[in-house]
Amino acid sequence: MDSISVPSILANAGLTANSFSMCFGRDGIGRISFGDKGSSGQGETPFNLRNSHPSYNVSMTQISVGDKVTNLSFSAIFDSGTSFTYLNDPAYTIISESFNSQVKEKRHTNVSNMPFEYCYDLSANQQSLDLPTVNLTMKGGSQFYVNDPIVIFSLQRGFYAYCLALVKSGDINIIGQNFMTGYRLVFDREKMVLGWEASNCYDAKNSNTLPINPTNSSAVPPASTVEPEATSGGKNGSPINSPSTPSPPPPNDSPRLNSFTSTLFVVFFTLFIHSYIILSS
């Protein structure tokens, strides 16, 4: 959140507002928009400002998983550079055990090579999932529904399993990219708020970029080291798409940079050099 970022450089040059948004589509395609301050109808919550390590940190006051509601105050960093969501206790246990008590599938026991603790077997002919909704109430009362809380894995002989894509953290809480799926996240550095609004990332207004074709082989792949499938955790009877066999994420608590993050870094660096040339000339 310091003044060394691309949004800061563009804002200080008078080229954009001091705000930006990142959109995470269900198909793995995303969009970053510098100067975007969101809309009047978006959900919002204030940033927690800490002078020593300023970050996009917000507070939550309640966790809802299906019919289980728990009042709990905790803070977390919204970090698009982390593929999955990392939470420490008690938030991790509350979400995981509430989810586990309400799913209908049998728990999958052989998850030694996965960082996820709560995984479940899918039957051979199963075509849909009925999952409990996961919802976070933010400071100020706005609701943040998690659209895609699971990942699906291919097992041997054509069988599949899914996991609650939540990792137990030993230190800080991080809301990762998987919990941001289906939203345009607005990081407003002028109002010092995080905003969010449902989006498929193709409906951006006043965009000067061409539409991205998700079937194009040159498109940026999804950020997750395990490929999330198009399943919706917040809707009954969500369809199951057969995934390709993914490589599992590392079984540790360290956030991992990926190709999506690397691509963004190249974009950021290019814009930085371009902005520096403009300001210096």
Through-space gap between termini? 27 Å
Percent helix range = 10-25%
The CATH superfamily is: Acid Proteases
Global outline: globular
Q: How many domains make up the 3D coordinates?
A: 1
What is the number of helices? 3
- Return Rg in Å: 19 Å
Amount of beta strand? 25-35%
Detail the poorly predicted runs: 206-238, 241-281
Secondary-structure content class: alpha+beta
> Which whole number gives the mean pLDDT?
76
Protein name: Aspartyl protease family protein
Family: Belongs to the peptidase A1 family.
Keywords: Hydrolase, Membrane, Protease, Transmembrane, Transmembrane helix
GO molecular function: aspartic-type endopeptidase activity
Task: Please tell me about this protein's structure.
The structure is a single chain. This protein has about 280 residues and is α+β, with helices and mostly antiparallel strands. It has a single domain, classed as Acid Proteases (Cathepsin D, subunit A, domain 1, Beta Barrel), CATH 2.40.70. It has helices at about 5-10, 90-100, 260-280, and strands at about 20-25, 30-35, 45, 55-65, 70-80, 85, 120, 130, 135-140, 145, 150-155, 160-165, 165-170, 175, 185-190, 195-200, 240. Strands 2-1-15-16-3 form a 5-stranded antiparallel β-sheet. A 5-stranded mixed β-sheet has the order 10-9-4-5-14. It has a 3-stranded antiparallel β-sheet with strand order 7-12-11, with no helix packed on it. The longest helix has 22 residues, at about 260-280. It starts with 5 loop residues before the first helix and ends with a helix. The model is unreliable at about 205-240 and about 240-280 (pLDDT under 50). Belongs to the peptidase A1 family.
